[in-house]
Amino acid sequence: MKILVIQQKMIGDVLTSSVLFEALRERYPKAQLDYLINSHTFPVVEHNPFIDNFIFFTPEAEKSKIALWNFAKSVKKEKYVVVIDVYSKLSSNLITALSGAKTKISYHKPYSTFIYHHNIKRRNQTDEACGLAIINRLQLLEPLDIYITAARPKIYLTSEELETSKQFLISNGVSLDKPLIMISVLGSGPNKTYPFEYMAQVIDQIVATTDGQILFNYIPKQEADAQAIFKLCKLETQNHIYLNLFGKSLREFLALTTHCHALIGNEGGAVNMAKALNIKTFTIFSTWIDKDTWNIFEMENVNESVHLKDYKPELYKGKREKDMKPHAMELYHKFIPDLFYDKLNRFLKMFRS
């Protein structure tokens, strides 16, 4: 039996959807379990023992209808019995439609119901700590008689990766006996990035409260923006920041994060990865992202989060978060750090050196 799970695009989505595989392996121990993803997201699921093969959605298939058609036909040749389309967009609709699978599962959308045998309606609320992002994915397993109410994404690092990252930190003057905090200084785009001056104030507060050591999470092409935030920090704070110590690859970032006491900053893939590594998190949500969906495993003193809606609910009255996307930057300027300093300080007390 061959089963394909489709989850294209973002790192956080690919990591979150990987929870399906452990449950599938338990239900079908001899099945071939494959994962269709974008290649740049592979590091977060590399070495996952429950996934047999990876199929990489190519850049050509994203840009060309002919390439997408040919890609879908290549997937059809694998003769999957079950296809679980978590992505549920036009490209994955086509891949699933042409797959020839006897069982096709996805989320309910009026325009694509004819493609799938099972169209699962998303829930919009849950009491489970794992959050809606997990709950809605687990619902996709129910047509296969798999009923679980919670699962946690996991990232699998090698002992060599862990030891190399440890020695890298030590050789660059980082003490593993003092608080070490990773800052997710930049989001995936401007409308998912806390304003630079506000982020600098947050970092000042972290250092003042913990006297800790600070690492920035960014990639080389974001260096100018990381430098800009660094320069907005107080001089005393700058002395605690190891600006040039960062993971040059996603796997290096993951390994470095395992040695941190917490990850604090913009909501996104970095937060989800930290949670999968069992690192404490404090998340600042973008003003238009639905916190109820993505604040997975929320727990006091473990994984905490803040959203402008928590403090100024009147701004969202009668509206959904995604309706606010065109006004994200304007709303961000109302989301001043003073609003959540009390909550942040309570969280930081755990890391005082």
From TrEMBL:
Transmembrane segments: none annotated. Pfam families: Glyco_transf_9. The keyword Glycosyltransferase applies. Keywords: Glycosyltransferase, Transferase. The keyword Glycosyltransferase applies. InterPro entries: Glyco_trans_9 (IPR002201), LPS_LOS_Heptosyltrfase (IPR051199). PANTHER family: ADP-HEPTOSE--LPS HEPTOSYLTRANSFERASE 2, TETRAACYLDISACCHARIDE 4'-KINASE-RELATED. This is Glycosyltransferase family 9 protein.
